[in-house]
Amino acid sequence: MPQISRFSLRYNRSCSATIVALASVLVWGSASAQTASTDASTWTLGGGVSVIKKGYRDIDRDVLPLPLISYESKWISASVPTLDVKLNSNENLSMRLRARYAGDGYDTDDSPFLAGMDDRKGSIWIGGAVIWRPQFANLSAEVLHDVSGYSKGVRAKLQVNRRFAFGTFGVTPRLGVEWVDSKYVDYYYGVKTSEVRAGRGFYQGNSTANIEAGVRLDYSIARRHTVFFDVRSSRFGSAIKDSPLVDQSSETGVSLGYIYRF
């Protein structure tokens, strides 16, 4: 019976981590669909595998299945785990209402060091986003608020990417910065007085900014069939690196998969 319980907890945490991986990979799937006419509706289906290493102390890497699905139309852009409602959209500029699930946090059995901590849960974030596509790159910005009531925090992100095409092969580097407020840092990386243990002191978070970088390689094996490899890293700001729960300066992820566009 204990073995079943441990499996259940592990499975739930893996599901949350899968959502995080999808957020990274499916940005590209949606962006690709957006290059079509704004009046067209397109679907993308696929799958793959992702390896994620969070920054928490003594936490293991997760090797996870990666189901991929997205939908794009004149008014809707949807991909697990993001839903956008387009308020105003054309080939160069798109203003949106955005809802997203983010699998941040941990279960206490994820690491021996986290024993005695309360679970930190993933949240639904709602806010606004802008995507601008000048000729030289794709630029995006978003501001989101945690409406699940766990951290009650705010996060804001700026990102730039550009795809360089070489026949059927493509390379898409990206660079971004994400600011998170003190409520976010305190919830996911803070230590409450009731959680203090030997070697784990009280910690109250402050706002900080994380630097994110990644690159995606894609290859079109046929007209509607594409395989991709994606690697990313998020370097933590000082308020997260200073947390006693963290023993790394960054979080990393690698994904490999296949997608089919209808």
From TrEMBL:
UniProt keyword annotation of Lyase present:
no
Question: What is the top-level taxon of the source organism?
Answer: Bacteria
Keywords associated with the record: Cell outer membrane, Membrane, Signal
Q: Which Pfam family, an example, fits this chain?
A: MipA
Q: How is this protein named in the record?
A: MipA/OmpV family protein
Location within or outside the cell: Cell outer membrane
The UniProt similarity line reads: Belongs to the MipA/OmpV family.
Tell me which positions the record assigns to the signal sequence.
1-33
